[in-house]
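Please fill in the sequence for the structure shown.

STRUCTURE ENCODING:
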């Protein structure tokens, strides 16, 4: 029998040196942005009455959608909160909230503005749709809720595109689409998952 050949080993003594040199190279050549603060004098805290008014104004602009660990969905506005039976309801509720056609004081603040290509238009620039989940929420339900909210925005954009440009939003020119996005911007907030109790 012949002697077994020994597999030659790689000399790894210089590997640490090469790694160290590369590390120094990247540290020297990489630029890191640093935040620079502006010197500001904070205003005096508002009176209690003013605080309450500001909180109310802020709350009216938020549509909260909560999904608990049992996948029950609650919609909460400034004046009302209730569990809903179907995800399909979310689209209609979201559209009514975003538009606030009757300028309901419990729904988002309505502002009038002149938009390029569209003209004078009422819209709710401060509205926010907040989707909050529980750590035990089913992913399928979460995505259904997200799809229902996005569907509300897409339908509103289509409606405005048909009204102003006689076409669907997807068929608009870039300038037309930008104008519609300014009137109906996506304003969806996803909060960190929390723990919510079971629906009664």
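FILLED IN BY: designer on duty
SEQUENCE:
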């Amino acid at each position: 029998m012949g002697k077994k050949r020994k597999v030659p080993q790689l000399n790894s003594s210089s590997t640490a040196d090469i790694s160290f040199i590369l590390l120094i190279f990247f540290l020297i050549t990489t630029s890191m942005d640093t935040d620079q603060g502006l010197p500001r004098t904070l205003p005096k805290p508002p009176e209690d009455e003013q605080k309450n008014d500001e909180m109310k104004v802020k709350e009216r602009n938020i549509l909260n959608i909560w999904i608990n660990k049992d996948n029950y969905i609650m919609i909460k506005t400034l004046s009302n909160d209730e569990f809903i039976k179907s995800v399909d309801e979310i689209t209609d509720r979201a559209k009514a909230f975003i538009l606030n056609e009757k300028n309901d004081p419990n729904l988002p603040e309505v502002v009038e503005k002149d938009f390029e290509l569209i003209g004078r238009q009422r819209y709710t620039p401060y509205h926010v749709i907040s989707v909050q989940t529980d750590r035990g929420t089913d992913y399928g339900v979460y995505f259904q809720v997200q799809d229902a909210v996005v569907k509300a925005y897409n339908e509103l954009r289509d409606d405005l595109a048909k009204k102003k440009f006689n076409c669907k939003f997807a068929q608009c020119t870039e300038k037309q689409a930008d104008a519609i996005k300014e009137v109906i911007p996506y304003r969806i907030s996803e909060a960190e998952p929390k723990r919510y109790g079971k629906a009664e």
